[in-house]
Amino acid sequence: MPLTRPQLDHLERRLLEERRRIAHELNRTADEHVGDDRQERAGDLTKVPLHAADLGTDTIDEELAASNETRMSRELSEIDAALDRLRVAPERFGVSEETGRDIPFARLDIIPWARTVGDQ
Fold first, then answer.
1. Residue 111 needs a FRET pair 20 to 30 A away by CA distance; which of 10, 63, 76, 90 works?
2. 101 pLDDT exceeds 90?
3. Domain ranges of the chain
4. For domain 5-110, is the CATH number 2.60.120.10?
5. Half-sphere exposure (CA, 13 Å, Cβ side) for 88?
6. Residue 2 DSSP label
7. pTM of the model
């Protein structure tokens, strides 16, 4: 059953809300690293790590932050694509790209950029 106009309006608001949240988070993490070097981010008093484990922890923290930023950037792209789909062909929004079946509204409410029905 196709989505109703109130459901589409709700999903557009959800997409815009998620877009603002993710963009804010990406900007916040970028601002945290502007001008910082590894020493400042780790709170070290010296440029030489006191222990090899400190260097390893710092490296893992940086890799985790980069991974999260990549994930958020991908989600932002998915949200932008969903907004485009919603605005260009609202009658097709919420239809699985894999199966052509309707994506349940409950799933879209949680992940409004979903392109597939997902596991059920």
1. 63
2. yes
3. 5-110
4. no
5. 6
6. P
7. 0.74
